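Supplementary notes for students who missed Thursday's class. We covered one full example, reproduced here. Read the sequence, then the structure, then the short commentary at the end.
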Amino acid sequence: MPAGASTSTTTTEATPARIRLGDRPLALIIGVGLFLAVAWPLCFLRIPPYQDLPGHLAAVTILANPDKYPEFVPTGFLKPNSFLFLWTLVLGRSFGFVAAAKAFAIGVLAANALVLPRFVLHFTDRKRMLLATPLLVPMVHNWFVSMGMLNFAASVPVALLLLMALDERLAAPASLRARVTVKASLLALLCWYLHPFPVMVVGLMVAAAAGAELVASAGKPLRERFTLARATLPALAPAAAMGAFVFALHVAAAAPRMEPPIFSSLQWALYNLWSQWMYGFTELTAVSLLPALVLAVAAAMRWREGRALLGPAPLVVLLLAYLLGPYVAFDSNYIAPRLIPFLWAAALVRLPARLPRPLVGALGAAAVVYLAGMPIDLFRLSRELDDFAAGTHAVPDRARLLTLNFNARVTSKNTFSLGTAWGLYVLERHTSAIDAWANVPSMPIMLRTKLPHHLEPMTRLRFVATARTREVFCADRHSKRIVTNNCEETWRDEWDLFWREALPTFDYLLLWDPPAEVLETVPPTFKESFVQGRLRILARTPSDDMGEPKP
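Structure (token representation):
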């Protein structure tokens, strides 16, 4: 045998083979790990303490029991922002509405966990994906999930997949362009069905990138100056057209009572960049500020990087739209904050290839602290929901129940976790549902006739906020420069008027964490029938009027 062959064989036998995991399998493993680390508490919670979730469960209950709620009319499911309700209604008939909604929430966490590493890998490389892993932890169970805005939360990872598909379309050979365009079109339609806003954001990013290409290619033939637009707009056109149509319908329905837009100050806008994406419920998850700062610094230092749809022009346009856009407009909340996920996505792809080792360790420690703090918050906020619903057995089925919530966040600092807890009584006892969201076509239900002004949810929320105590009431009037001779008597008159207008329609009154001075104003016709902790349920006693009960 030749000497060379013998040497080669010996070397091969002495050197162990190195098996390198592929990039996509590694992204999948990271995603599964993120999902398991973040989602496991939901398996042990009766109801996830997401702000809007009880209200959504109430809407599904109304849809499932039309005979018990003749005052509502369904608006159908062939429109955006409907998938959660359709999913919960269909699966809930077999497994229960709570289980179906919980499964949807778990699915949202799974989508975030699986898509985010793949997104970073697609637009950067393996090293940056590994570097980004601890930074992704607070993005999986992000603020929109905590708020219970689950349709929108589900649409964000789909929008990220859409950005990846559009980027793929830019580089696709001619033989694959049609297939990639169809893929992007289907993702855009799915994203639109979940929530139309992210499709509009992607369209804004496409417009910014196309504008930058137009400027950079000045002097070239006209066809070469619109390469990006020609490659991406056909895939977005169907979803964009439907999004514009739905937006016009929403504005037309809200126009009669539309209030002026509300804008955030610069300091609140900067604070919300963190708090309305990475911050959880309480200070136990405030450690997420560290990855937010690291990403913000990376984006600021490397803002000229990023390609095509995530290049400098889309980043700048997104940031300006966020800072200058309204917080509330067109009868909808959280307009500008819905841009936040895409700003952080643009920041992720601007991570450097390396970070100082102590900083990497600090980011890993921050992720561990977050993963310990989030379950603690979830469990204690879930107990608060149970405390709110503790009086369901004291309320008969189909009771005419009026709810006044004086403390919508007992523990939570970053959400009003009990803001729609009234929905649990609709879910379990089919009580009256005057607080249900039923005022615009984008909701799954609509009221057949408008509520009286004093019973409208926003009117009552404002009244409770400004008249919760004499001190708060008088301070509010003073700040508005309303002159009152005897403010405390006026406060009592306001409550007496509210009770006279509101209570004749109801037989039960639920008060959560009411001040003692408010309890003193409740007419004697209503007597406490259940008291536990912060919860008070009062029942009407037989009487001829709002005065003394019958003997």
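Commentary. The beta strands are 72-74, 401-405, 445-447, 508-512, 526-532, 535-540. Confidence is low (pLDDT under 50) at residues 1-15, 544-551. If anything here is unclear, bring it to office hours.
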